[in-house]
Amino acid sequence: MIGGFKWIGLIVATMIGAGYASGREIWEFFGHESGLGILLFTIMFIISCVVVLTISYELKSEHYLPVLQTLVGKRFAHFYDWGILLYLFTMLFVMISGSGATLHILEFPYFIGVVLMIVLLVVVIPYGMGGILSINRFLLPMLILGLAVVLIVFIYQEKVPLIYQYVEQSNWVSSVPFTSLNVVPLIAVIGAIGKEIESKTEIYVASIGSGLILGTMSYIYNISLIHVSDQLFFYEIPLFAILNGYPIQMFFIMSVLLWFAIYTTAITSLFGLIARVKEYFKWSKGVVGVLLILAAVPFTLVGFSNLISYLYPLYGLINIYVLAMILLFPIIKRASERKI
């Protein structure tokens, strides 16, 4: 049970990155008439966690590739391995853009946020990920807790109805690309912990617990965003529409926490990229890192909300095959065992 709660923290931290915490990812896929969609996402997410963790546990895997190969075969695993590389590069320039959008809300010029992020990414390259991940273990729970408190207080103060548009549920299909968008990064993280899982009880505790937490969080975030939907056009980061009217101290604290979530997501993506591509170059990791950052900069001109609007649904569609294989895996495995 205790081990299961440990993995809940890892899974929730993997899901609640800067795109999710900002509200832009939730609003891009859900919005009006999405209650059923969020319920379906919760169910599919729980099943996905159970399947991926079980495969990882049985293989005693230390990285995600064996899990990916088990799910989609070696040929498709090679394709999605490169897909993860492209996803990491996308996350890099989306997060650099997100830094500009966050500081712009605090009335700094957009380019100041972009330059600040670039400088701090370059500075951290020689030091590796150890220090920033230690900071992230402290800041991310604060972000999740702060986000939960903000949403609950907002719903209470604004008297937001907890049951929204329960008859109209036309947007249920959005649950599929939303789940598939998040399932490949999930494989990359929890596919690497198989050697550390001690029992299947941990798997069920982690899967059900994280699914219920994320499903509930997604639902209350979504109904909060529906309540301020007429204001979202003016905000690249929807969370700030909810924070509008809060004490300036809360606004500032959440802005700082969100910026650090953006920064750590960018660092994680950058180091993942460096580790994956440095074998193709003779240069040092510092040079490779700087070149990757420079390659990402032109894409930041598109803007944070536009990048998420175009790229996240695209990745959601690309990853649907992986999600389908995860959901079908128990059936396929049982059929294979019967033949034997």
UniProtKB/TrEMBL annotation:
Name of the protein in question: Membrane protein YkvI
Keyword Ribosomal protein found: no
Transmembrane annotation, as ranges: 39-59, 79-96, 108-126, 138-156, 176-194, 203-228, 248-275, 287-308, 314-332
InterPro entries: YkvI-like
Keywords linked to the UniProt accession: Membrane, Transmembrane, Transmembrane helix
Keyword Membrane attached: yes
Organism whose genome encodes this protein: Piscibacillus salipiscarius
Top-level taxon of the source organism: Bacteria
